[in-house]
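Schema walk-through. Below, the input block comes first and the output block second. Nothing else is stored per chain. Lengths vary across the set, and this one has 506 residues.
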Amino acid sequence: MFLGRNSCWEGFSIADSANLDPCSVGLNVWCILEKRFSTSHFIVLLVLMIAFGGCSRPQISQPLKSEVSTEQRLTLAFIEEAELAELTARRWASEGHLEPAIENLSLAQLQEAGYEFAANVDVIVFPFGIYGDLIAGGQLLEIDERNLPASVSFNRTNFLGQFRSNLTRYGSQTLALPLGAPHLALFYRADLLPEGAPQYWSDLEAAWGELPSNDEKTLLPWLEPLADRWAAHSFLARAAGAIRFRGKISTVFDLNTLEPLIATEPFEKVLAEMVVQHQRLGTTEFLTPAEIFAKFRAGHVAMAVAWPVDDEQVESVPFKIGVARLPAQVNYFEPSRQLWIPRKGSQQLQVDYLGSEGRMVAVASNSLHANEAIDFVAWLSSNQTGHRIMSESRGSGPFRLGHLPLTSAWTKGALPDETVEQYAEVIRQVHAEEICLTFPRVRRQGDYLEVLGQAVRDAITGKISEKEALQLVRERWGTITTEVGIDRQKEMLRKTEGLLTGKIED
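--- output ---
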């Protein structure tokens, strides 16, 4: 419908157009010029002016709608990390989120609850050692990696190599993301061992000969962790190079039968060497890595298998500290041929043992706010947030490539700057390797390790022979596996190795 002539403004001039909207101008120009041109011409003109200029509409004053937040308040469960929980909650809230509710649990409480969480828990921060128990109990929600942020800050490919694969893998699923781990290394007195640390476990005694006379035994040649399950971890760290090599997947269990391999020749040889060295050492102190490092910094140990822990009571050390990867094995055992073969050529020269300690984060399977929980998991494990928060946990360590230049945030004052750089390089080397040894992430992993740790200590103290100790472990591991269920454990074992079904030839 078009305006008639009576609708045209009387006395309209082009000068008036500055104060009118384009639509009004167009209508009145049509009124003036209609006499000279056809209506169809003006229809085209009008359409063009509306399209390019737009027509103004009456402006109605309306109150602005307030933005309503749809964010849900998360509930976070922290296992053995109460101080870290408070720090994490404050940091999350400081970035504009609702402050989360916190549930602090001990391992004992979680075990008593059958590794099950309350229905309101959205996110779980937990130690590496219970990963298998949480998987078996169906407590972890699969994280769809398509929902993870693609930001540079998160960047999954920035995780250190073993954290991307061996330490977190479970079949094709992503059930948790890493939050780092303190790294076991060999710290040594560089002033007493100017040639560096021994390369092989069998060279430990030769290194002792380079130390000064110490009749009062105020300086121990070396120490490795033997407290509780640490005896098992130390033994497996020694055995790694003897049992793990390219193409060999079955290490402590046979992947086809789940038969324990712990009483076989390579383990017996490694334990025998370990027992002899400890008997010559002449001490029965069973310590943790942190306790050993404290003795090292105090000047009581020349070589320490440990990780750095800051002791505020010790301001500095009066000697130069060196750090190296854990010693290697000269040979590995090839079970199919029953032969010991030198580690050379295409075989990786050193095989490290990982997973004895560390932290992970996951979305709880009963979370009512899974999308927000996934955002939180990605945030906590990101490059920047992970560095700022996880460096305050003694159960963590650098877990991204971007963290290596920031390793001092974790070591704090435990190491001088030049040694921190060496330590970061050791971590980088280990995570750049193709293979490493980890204990299988199966149900009741802690029980398996407890049995092994006690047997190792009994052998070291001479209560039983090395062969008897490992046979006992084999029997007790078999019992644990039967109690859990062979098929269930076999499935978990294969998935932790990234395997599917079928017979394994290795």
